[in-house]
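Reference record
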Amino acid sequence: MLAKPGKVPQPEFQWTQKPDYGQVPLYLKRNKERISKEKEQFSQFLRVREAPDANAHVSQLSPDDRQQLIRHLKNKWGSVNTAYQGLSLTVDTAMKKIRKEAMERELAEIERDIRTLERGEVVLVVED
């Protein structure tokens, strides 16, 4: 009665006896589908990018129109910059912060457009 119980032999687990043995796991199926969708989207993007757009009409912007557009953008930049300079130096409320960030974004966008237009002599306009 005081002796240790003997070891009961446990049958060795057979992986081949599991009901889902040999089947592809669900997460691998999902990953394969996701990868194939991404490849299809990328190939479609390349086809659209490389194919000439039949409906798009490209025209060249005249130098006078280009200069007029640059002048207009510089005037707009000046007015936005004047309003920006008129803001208070302390940004203590959320609305002031939002307004300041919006003006900074607008100024950066106008500056980028001006640099783009001043970069070259030929400006092509794509009309949809």
About this structure: Residues 55-127 form one domain.
